[in-house]
Amino acid sequence: MRTHFLFSVLPLAGALTGCFTGLLAQAPSYQATSYLVTDTPKIVAMRVTPPVLSPDTPLQLEALILAPQGEQLTQVTVATCGTGRDVQTAIFDLNCFEDSDEYTPLAQDSSLPLVFEFPETPTLQDCNDPFYVDYDTPDTADTAWGKDTSAEPTEACAHFLPMLVTATVGDRIAYASDYALWFPSGAPEQLESLAEIQFAINAPESAAPGDELDLSVIAYGDYRDATFHWYVDAGVLKDTGVTGAHQWIPESQDNATGATLSTNRLVVPQDYSGTLRIYGVMQEGGGFFFGGSGGSDLEAANMVWIQSNVEVR
């Protein structure tokens, strides 16, 4: 079972004032109808490469930040909290970012991607099987974070900690959060980043006001369990802002991986003219979890996205 939450709805007070906006901060059900780019910037997708957090190699953060055309990202930061203990630590909210003793900045710049090192963390003690409880043993029954009969012991010691991304666009701030396992002594395995896959979008290059446009995104590989998210500058997505996999194209001599297709339809407003941006995002699995049957309990945010521009005239 996936253990990283896709969003956090807990507000931050004090130093981190502002509104949490975007897919990583709101329940996915809201995004089905809240797919328009607005004056409020939103972080709607995020990817950490490599996706399993380990000190073996530098980490790179990428994000899709939506804002009105012409507005520029001026600052972006990434931070975590709760890294200073030598015992396994699990944090399920963002309140620790209000404690200066717990807050650990990782990187800050005026553009993406951000490259940062795994934070210095004491060696963890006595956790051969972290986050795993034998439910058949009565004296451990109350220490679990939820019964999962399919759970397997993790092979290496890890913290379960939040990652907070803060983006400033103009004078407005957007936040996004992710929860993942952090392996101070090295990860038991490394997983493929979705940045490595072929991901394409099909949309017309031009359109007239009032046109209905056929859209599709295609991921080369078997992502039939994935969820696809759509964002546009204007108009109505007739199949909503969240879709599933609509077509599987099997492997062939010309396509060794097979391909997964998701479609949508966009009605252009009658009064629109100029460039209309369309974004397609793929998230493995769905609901409130990253991953799913094709993902892993180990990885951090691992999403892929693409943009297309339609000239309306």
Structure in a nutshell:
The protein is mostly beta strands. The chain has 1 helix and 17 strands.
Explained architecture:
With 313 residues, the protein is mainly beta. The protein has one helix and 17 strands. It has one helix spanning 28-31; strands at 42-49, 59-66, 73-81, 103-109, 114-116, 159-169, 172-182, 199-202, 206-207, 212-219, 227-232, 236-237, 242-243, 247-249, 259-267, 274-283, 303-312. Strands 8, 10, 12, 14 and 15 form a five-stranded antiparallel sheet that branches. Strands 9-17-16-11-13 form a five-stranded mixed sheet. The protein has a four-stranded antiparallel sheet with strand order 4-3-6-7, with no helix packed on it. Strand 6 (159-169) and strand 7 (172-182) form a beta hairpin.
What keyword list fits this structure?
Immunoglobulin-like; 36% strand; mainly beta; single chain; 313 residues
In terms of per-residue confidence, which ranges show pLDDT below 50 for 5 or more consecutive residues?
A: 1-29, 140-151, 287-295
Number of domains: 2
Radius of gyration equals 20 Å
Distance from first to last alpha carbon: 48 Å
The total count of helices amounts to 1
Instruction: Please tell me what the overall shape is.
Output: globular
Q: If you consult CATH, what is the topology of the largest domain?
A: Immunoglobulin-like
CATH class division of the largest domain:
Mainly Beta
Largest sheet: 5 strands, antiparallel
User: What's the average pLDDT?
Assistant: 83
- The number of strands is 17
Q: Helical residue percent?
A: under 10%
CATH hierarchy: architecture of the largest domain:
Sandwich
Class inferred from helices and paired strands? mainly beta
Quaternary structure state of the chains depicted: single chain
Percentage of residues in DSSP E strands: 35-45%
Order of helices and strands: HEEEEEEEEEEEEEEEEE
